[in-house]
Structures are given as structure tokens and as C-alpha cells.
Fold:
Amino acid sequence: MSAWKIAPCRAPGLPKLEEQEERDLLSSGIDSSDAEEETDLDAAYDELEEMKQRLIALRNKIIITNPDACQDLKVRELWSTEGGELQELRDQKCQLICQLQEVTQHLKDSQNELKELEGWRCHLQSRIHQAKRQLSQFEDFKLKVIHQFGLCLERWENQKTCKVDYTTYRKEMEAHILHADNVRQSVVHQKCHKSYRRRIRVELMLIRVFLHNLFEAMVNDFKFFSRHMSIKWVTATAPTSIKL
Structure:
């Protein structure tokens, strides 16, 4: 420390000293304060070491990897008075980070819900289009059924007026045959007019064959009509629960 060169003080307002006096003061001051300066250096080193430890402790308090520590209010008690503002800023930063994470998660959840709702909307829209197509098909089918129902009523009335059933036909034919036999027996003698009788019998046989063929034709027509109408009815009644 004795080797340090101390520049003379030239502050304004101080009385001017001669060079010899200044030299005497400087030399006397340096010789008498060597021991005091050494003790001051030791104290300064101690103070610097103490400040170093405080900075290390402050750094350890600032660098915290636990994300939940920003929500703990008791952390403030671990800080010294010098780091109060820094801790407050750090708390605000952590709160903003937590809020940002919450908002980000809420945004992701909202996007997922929007995607799910979009899928449901597309599904419902396709179902609506399908229902509309089925409704239009049902309207067309309803018109066809109404038309076919009218035709069925018309054909049924035609069958009732133009054709007879099997029971009625048998009764009518039996009555006609019985009447013809009675008339033939009463009018034509069995021993006389054999040729007329054979002719009449042939004519009756032909009439019977004709009537039989006519009856078979009527039955076939009725079966064909029934089969044709049943096929149309099965095709027309494909959708269930039809209300006309």
C-alpha cells in the first residue's frame, strides 16, 4: 500500500499549501495509516464475500424450476427485503404464464369441441338430406298407391258385374243341366228320334266342354289377375306403415 501514488487534492475552496508542506503531510499520512489500511482491506474482503454469498442465495431463489411455486404465497417470506420487487415481478410473470397456459388449454378444448360439433353438424345435415329424399320418394309412392287403389276398386267392380265365382257358376250350371235334362226327357222320347237325341247329347257335351273351358279360362284369368295384383301390391307396399 505504501507504493500507491495519491494525487494531490485540488478541490476548489481548499487553502493552497506549499509543495514541501504537502509532501510532509502525505508522507506522514502514509506512514501512520498503513496498519489501518490493511484492516480496512480485510473488512472490504469480508464484505465482498458476504455480498457474494447473498448474490448466490438470491440467484438460487430466483432460479426455481417448480412451476407451482408462483402460486404459493409463502415464498415471499423466504426473500429478503432487497428482492421484494423482483419477487413481485416474478409472481406476476408466473401468474401470466399460468393464465396463458389456461387460456391455451381452453383454446385447445374449444377447438376440439368445435371439431366435434362440426362433425355432428355434417352428420345431421346428411341425415336431413336423406330424410328429404325419403320424403320425396314417399310422396311419389303415395301418388302411385292412390292410383293403383283406384284401379283395384275399378277392377273389383268389373269382376263383380262381369264375372261370377265358382259356387254361383256350379249352381247355375246344375240348374241349367237339370232343366235341359227334364225338357229333353219330356219332349223327346227315348225310343223315338234317336238321332235327335244323340245330336242333342253331342251338343250338350260340346256345351259342357265349352262351359268347362270357359270356366277354366275364367279361373286362369282370375288367378293371373290375383297374381298380378299381389305382385304390384307387394312392390307398392315396400315402406311400412303407409297411411293414405
